[in-house]
Amino acid sequence: MPELPEVEVSRQGLLPYLPGERIVGACIRTPKLRHDIPAGLANRLTGLRIDAILRRGKYLLFDCESKRGGGWLILHLGMSGSLRLVPPGTPEKKHDHFDLVVARTTLRLRDPRRFGALLWHEGANVDAHPLLAVLGIEPLSPDFDGDWLHTVTRRRSGPIKPLLMDSHLVVGIGNIYAAESLFHAGISPLRAANRISLERYRTLVPAIRSTLEASIAAGGSSVRDYVHSDGGAGCFQLSCAVYDRAGAPCTQCGKPIHNIRQAGRSTFYCTHCQR
Ligand SMILES: [Zn+2]
Which are the contacts of 99, defined by CB distance < 8 A and separation ≥ 6? Predict the structure, then answer.
């Protein structure tokens, strides 16, 4: 499933090719992904210029002259979506649901499982869109720091890991990133959020940031391939310390990594190093 780093790398991969370009056409080959695709979307897009491509959580936001009578194309890759840039006129394959055509290239969305989203928001204020208005803080923004996380968790007595993965609180911290960050901060995924000190939150937040940034950097180093070749949205392989290493020796203490179920998800951690 594409996580925040993959979405951010997709965004960065598109930046040299799409902003500043005028949309000459769009092709929608399915009426519905996770949500209905708005009727008339192709007509609405055609003729507008792409001013910028932003990201909010795992949503890509295409600013289509939103401040001059246009709006925003909102795109989510869901469970299996991927984006590629293909030469104009490239024949579509199965699961290629959407094309956005500019003069020199075509942005193509492939989504076999159809859990992605393709939506339109009229006008400038895209943050008001119902899917975006409920999102928590961006983990790479300067406002997300240890003090903030400490403050907002004072009344949260549930375990920290599911809380980190709650997009209403903070967006884009998937299972792998939550597990790795907690290991690097020495915090047990089971610890109650309101029983973690300010000091430890001030260690955890930089660990989250550096885990995400390392993954973006790993993908970013192959960013041209990413959007130009097979477009596979696989996880950028971090060298994981705990994730998917059940039974293997902890990189710090050598004791075996534990794997438990927590809120319906696999959790990997070291019972010795994480308290
Ligand atoms: Zn250990």
Answer: 25, 26, 27, 92, 106, 107, 108, 109
- Which residues sit with Cβ closer than 5 angstroms to ligand 1, an ion? 250, 252-253, 270, 272-273
The runs of H, that is alpha helices, within the chain are 4-14, 41-45, 130-133, 146-152, 160-164, 175-185, 198-220, 223-228
Ligand 1 centroid from CA 270, angstroms? 5
Place of tokens 């897009």: 45
What per-residue confidence (pLDDT) applies to 231? 45
Segment 78-117, tens digit of pLDDT: 988 999 999 989 999 999 999 999 999 999 999 999 999 9
In Å, the largest CA–CA distance within the chain is 60
Ligand 1 mean position to 187 CA, how many Å?
Answer: 11
Per-residue pLDDT tens for 142-197? Answer: 999 999 999 999 999 999 999 999 999 999 999 999 999 999 999 999 999 999 99
As a whole number of angstroms, the distance between CA 14 and CA 224 comes to: 9
DSSP assignment, residue 36? B
User: Which of residues 67, 102, 133 is at a domain's end?
Assistant: 133
How far, in Å, is the centroid of ligand 1 from the Cα of 265? 21
Classify residue 139: in a domain, yes or no.
no
- For residue 140, is it within any domain? no
Q: How far, in Å, from the CA of 241 to the mean position of ligand 1? A: 10
- Specify whether 107 is located in the same domain as 158: no
Catalytic residues: 2-3, 58, 265
Question: Euclidean distance between the first and final Cα of the chain, in Å?
Answer: 29
Structural domain including 190 reads 146-269
Alpha-carbon distance 49 to 65, whole Å? Answer: 6
Give the Å distance between the CA of 164 and the centre of ligand 1: 21
